[in-house]
Every structure is written in structure tokens, then in C-alpha cells.
């Protein structure tokens, strides 16, 4: 009768390989999702830090901070909803006032915000930009 015996090193290598494959399968891509104009929707592997950034390194200070939870866009505008207090006692905080809204004017390369929801509607009207229906951010990845 033949019995396969693995050495401790072989077993350890197999466990590390399984662990590594599980980590790769569970991590989101760090690569950007292209948005209209010079903007990207960016996420970092292993982090809930989704934000909108300017592609041009010289304008890198132009960004919508994390954590973006909803977004909509067309060729002229990007509208983002940001969770201001991302975590509270292990749960996503969805209490009133915990969200900020941002407007990115693609044509003028300008970012406006943060706004409350009523302020957002007023700002869109003032800028002559359309109000779009926001979608969950994970629909874009």
C-alpha cells in the first residue's frame, strides 16, 4: 500500500498558495474607471477609498474625497454622493446629514462641494447642469 506523505515545507507552501489566491480574488482592482473629461473614479486594493481624481498630475489637488457611495455622469457633469462618516460601530452610517454631494463640471474642469441635497439641486440649476439619477458606486466596477 502506497501512502503519500507531504513534508512540512510542501504543506506550508500549499497553504500559502491558497491564502494568496484568496487574497487576489477578494481584492478590487486599483485601476481607475474612466469618467468623462480628465477625471477617473479610483479605488485602492483592499481599501474602501473610492474617490474622483483629475488625471493630470499637476492638477492632482482637484478631487472628490472618499468615500463615494453613489454617482451619476454624462458628458458635461459628474455628480457624486460622499459618505462623510464611513463607519460607525461596524455599520455604514446612513443617518441624515452624514452625506455630502459634489458636482464636477467636466467642461470647465471645476469641482464644487460639499453640498447638502437641497444645496446640490440649487448649484446644478445655477451652473445650468442636469440633475442625474445617482447609482450605487459598485455598479461602475
Report on the architecture of this protein.
This protein has helices spanning 8-26, 117-127; strands at 33-34, 39-42, 51-54, 63-64, 68-73, 77-83, 99-105, 110-115, 135-136. The chain is α+β, with helices and mostly antiparallel strands and 141 residues long. The protein has one domain (29-140). The strands form two sheets. It has a five-stranded antiparallel sheet with strand order 8-7-6-5-9, covered by helices on one side. A four-stranded antiparallel sheet has the order 1-2-3-4, with no helix packed on it. Strand 5 and strand 6 form a beta hairpin. The relative contact order is 0.15. Mean pLDDT is 74; it is low at 18-30.
> Mind summarizing the main beta sheet?
5 strands, antiparallel
Write down how many β-strands occur, each being a DSSP E stretch of 2 or more residues: 9
Question: Which range does the strand content fall in?
Answer: 25-35%
Order of helices and strands: HEEEEEEEEHE
The secondary-structure class comes to alpha+beta
Spatial order of the strands in the main sheet? 8-7-6-5-9
**Mean model confidence by pLDDT:** 74
Return the domain count.
1
**Fraction of helical residues:** 10-25%
Query: What overall form do the CA principal axes indicate?
Result: globular
Number of DSSP helices? Answer: 2
**What Rg do the Cα atoms give?**
21 Å
Uncertain runs: 18-30
Q: Give the distance, in angstroms, between the N- and C-terminal Cα atoms.
A: 52 Å
